[in-house]
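HOLO CASE FILE
Compound: zinc ion
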Amino acid sequence: MHELAITQDIVETVGARADGARVLRVVVVIGKLSAVLPDAVRFCFELCCEDTPLAGAALEIVEPPGVVRCRGCGAEFEIDRPFARCVCGSTELDWISGEQLSIRAIEIVEEGAA
Ligand SMILES: [Zn+2]
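Model generated. Tokens follow.
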């Protein structure tokens, strides 16, 4: 289950960026072609956050669709699964985006804030 390793990586990266501050919210981008299951990441997140500055933090996942270009006719369209077929019948599709996996934003408790 590679989502566990990915989630641990996210938690470590966010923890390092927060630099000791408590983290309230994390926004993660998981493209629909990334082969990462958002539900699995959600499942692992709470566990991975235990005993870290992220304990109790909310996780928000943004899932941009995949965008591909057909080699047959040049059409560009969105897909939400790695395998798809163009209206022209071709299955030779170049992936333009949708494989991204990144941390978009983190929200921390500012020191000294009421
Ligand atoms: Zn096509």
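CASE NOTES: The pocket of zinc ion is lined by residues 70, 72-73, 75, 86, 88, 90 (CB under 6 Å). The chain is about 25% helix and 30% strand.
CLOSED: yes
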